[in-house]
Amino acid sequence: MSAVRQGTAGATRHCPHCKATILESAAVCPGCRGHLRFEAGPAQNALATPLRVEGTIHQTAADGTAEYSMVLSIRNERGEEITRQVVGVGALKPDEKRTFSLSVELFAVANKGRGGR
Length: 117
Fold this sequence. Notes:
Elements: E1 12-14, E2 21-23, E3 48-58, E4 66-75, E5 81-92, E6 97-106
Antiparallel strand pairs: 1-2, 3-6, 4-5
């Protein structure tokens, strides 16, 4: 019998370590990778990673110093913006590099009915 409360798919909570909003079902925070609970069963692994993007920006000496903002936007099937967040900001001096990575992971939802084991 599991002591973990099964919530609604997509329900969220805050990580006690980094305060990021995460899925209620997460055993490990995807942001700080802090353990939130220890499970006797197998770790929750992603079913798929349908989106993974990585890119590097290199500021050349000829271009001088530049600033950047990393903005994340999520839209629904109608194109309506669900959320928009500034993830990070900074500056690049000549001959500096920054690499940005984004991944979206899908997880199975445990649908256990009442009284089920």
